[in-house]
Amino acid sequence: MTDAVIRPARPDDAEPLAALGRQTFIDTFVNGFAIPYPANDLSTFLDASFSPDTITQKLAEPGAAWWVAERDGDLLAFANAGPNGLPHPDAHPTDMELRRLYVARTAQGLGLGTRLLTLSLDWMQARGAGPLWIGVWSGNLKAQKLYAAHGFEKVGEYQYPVGAWMDDEFILRRG
User: What is the mean pLDDT of each run of 10 residues along the chain (175 residues)?
Assistant: First the structure.
């Protein structure tokens, strides 16, 4: 087994990215945190967020970037950053946001999340003159601790739709 390589995502990663995103969401929020999403809401969210077509479109978004951690041809983790879309009065679309940082359950503890976070933050800092933003589920203390270690502070809250279900999220800012 070789070490994981982090590289920019490519269009041919859309299908494995969709599968990784879907499974990591289920492993983290449904199985891990036991959020009781109604089946229809979960299915609607997963189909809208993690279909290969959706990922293909998002990979081509101007001003956004995707990175993957790959080992022996398998995707283990990914990060996505781009123009900010968080609902905070001080946030602007010209600011940068870390939109997703997902690590497969089987790859947790390998340092991939930290490596992808560092890469994403460096990329965002180089492209935005304003603060950096992250939205994180209010119950994900591990992620909040990681982001705090990188200088992020809670500055707001909002609700993130998973189908019709609304997750309570924190808005974090650095800078």
Answer: 89 97 97 96 97 96 96 96 96 94 95 95 91 97 94 97 97 96
* Per-residue three-class SS string for the chain: CCCCEEEECCHHHHHHHHHHHHHHHHHHHHHHCCCCCCHHHHHHHHHHHCCHHHHHHHHCCCCCEEEEEEECCEEEEEEEEEECCCCCCCCCCCCEEEEEEEECHHHCCCCHHHHHHHHHHHHHHHHCCCCEEEEEECCCHHHHHHHHHCCCEEEEEEEEEECCEEEEEEEEEEC
| Residues 77, 82, 83: CA angle, nearest 5 degrees | 155
